[in-house]
Every structure is written in structure tokens, then in C-alpha cells.
Amino acid sequence: MAPTAFRPDRPALVSRLRAAGCVYAEDEAELLLAAADSAETLTALADRRVAGVPLEHLLGWAEFCGLRVAVDPGVFVPRARTALLVEAAAAVAGPAPVVVDLCCGSGGTTLALAARLAPRRLAAVDVDPAAVACARRNLAGRDVPVLTGDLYDPLPPSWRGRLDLVVANAPYVPTEAVALLPAEARLHEAPVALDGGADGLAVLRRVARGAVEWLAPGGHLVVEISDRQAEALCASMRALGLVPAVVRAPEWDATAVTARRPV
Ligand SMILES: C[S@@+](CC[C@H](N)C(=O)[O-])C[C@H]1O[C@@H](n2cnc3c(N)ncnc32)[C@H](O)[C@@H]1O
Hints:
Blueprint: H1 10-19, H2 25-35, H3 39-50, H4 55-59, E1 61-64, E2 67-70, H5 83-92, E3 98-102, H6 108-117, E4 121-126, H7 129-138, E5 146-148, E6 163-168, H8 175-178, H9 183-188, H10 202-214, E7 215-225, H11 227-239, E8 243-249, E9 254-260
Parallel strand pairs: 3-4, 3-6, 4-5, 6-7
Antiparallel strand pairs: 1-2, 7-9, 8-9
Bound molecules: S-adenosylmethionine (SAM).
Residues 76, 78, 82, 102-106, 108-109, 125-128, 131, 150-151, 169-171, 190, 192-193, 203 line the site of S-adenosylmethionine.
């Protein structure tokens, strides 16, 4: 017997997604339809989406800076606002820089930095083995080591004092605010990707402390932050002898801080 043709009910899917609170229900419906090859698969995907699983975890990929980035379950989904981090890095980087992407997550930021900066050397680090595995997949075939560990710890000691650029989208949500995040983040992304300690700056302060040792004189640290936290972060950086500047992109609701290690 010939298999029954798969004729999805697009309007019904859009209505279902909209009723579940998906703001971009039409776009999401298109993506789910493209990912499903049978009525059963589509129903399973829609059920999980309506139950709150992030679209990107269902599809297995996210779009970031015009690139398709694989995203495994539990791994942080690259956010559109993080394009500012890549732009801010490009604005301060010299030609053929030596770059480290700390807290690389899926490796989406690393891929975008590779495309935007043409670095001489590029490495990525994450403490979460699931993120490292995902980033290795995204960076397969490139000469970009993805290392497991805490911030600068896994880098080769010979790189100390020689980095032109350190980029970090580290966790910066204050611990108490994690419970207030949308369920998609709270329940489906690893807590280590979100929780930045009591004031949200615990990891970023350590990133800045390490930058003083690992950056070459004249090198830059570039980090993402919320607008509300930017001044406190800049004060910590100034106390370390770095020279910070705040960069904002209201169209992405994004803030970044660049900090130069003086020569
Ligand atoms: C907000 S996510 C950003 C991921 C990626 N850069 C992006 O923008 O999509 C933060 C990442 O930092 C990692 N992380 C948290 N603490 C870390 C640490 N001490 N050392 C290295 N990575 C860390 C988490 O595992 C998570 O993947």
C-alpha cells in the first residue's frame, strides 16, 4: 500500500504555536514543517515546542551572525544580541590577531569570530563538557582547538601575555534573577551558562583579572554584559589597570564592554 501523503495543516500549527505563546509562530511553523517528514514527527516536534522546549534545541541548530550553528540539548542557544560582541571585537582587533573565545558554549561565537577576524590563531574554552563537544562539532575541520576547563586554565602557558584579543560571553545573570528567566532558558540551558553569582559579575571579574596576565600589552578583552551592570564591571576593570569602554546596540538590546591592556 502506498504511504499516505504528508499534508500538514499549516494554519492549525500556527494557531497552536501562537496559543502556546510563541511570538514568531509563523516563522517557527515554517521551520518545524521543514524539519518534519511525517505527520508523526511534526506532531512530536509541535508537542515538545508547546511544552516549552527551545525551538533551536528541537531543530538542532540556531542562526547566529548569518551562520548555522549546531546546538545540542542543554547547551546555551546563541542569542541575536551577541552579534554585538563579535562586532565590538572586530572594531578593536588588529590584523591577524591571536584570539581566545572563553565561555564558547556551542562555539557559535567562535565560528563568527573566525569568519569576521581572520585570526592568526584562535582557540575556544568552556567548562561544560556538553558545550565543548558541541563546539568541537561546529568547528570540525578548522584549526581551532576547543579546550575543556575553567577560563584560562587549559590554555598553553606559552600564550600567557601574548593574546591580542580575549572574547567572553560569560554567564552574567545574578543568582537570584535566574529563577525569573523564561522557562526556555531556566529549564533547558545549563545553570553554569546563566548564573553569574550574587551580582552577576563573579565570572566576568575573574575573566578581567586573567586578561591582565594573558593579554599582550595593547591587547583587548571584549565581553557581553547588561546595560545595568556595565558601569560596575568597568569599575572592576579600571581597578585592575585595564581601560574599559562601553559599546551599545539598542536595536539588539545589547551592551558590550571592551577593555584595553595598556602598553
Ligand atoms: C552565556 S553562555 C555563552 C556561550 C557562547 N559564547 C554564546 O554566546 O552562545 C556561557 C558559557 O560559559 C560557560 N562557562 C561558565 N563558567 C565558565 C568557566 N568558569 N570557564 C569556562 N566556561 C564557563 C558555560 O558552560 C556556557 O557555555
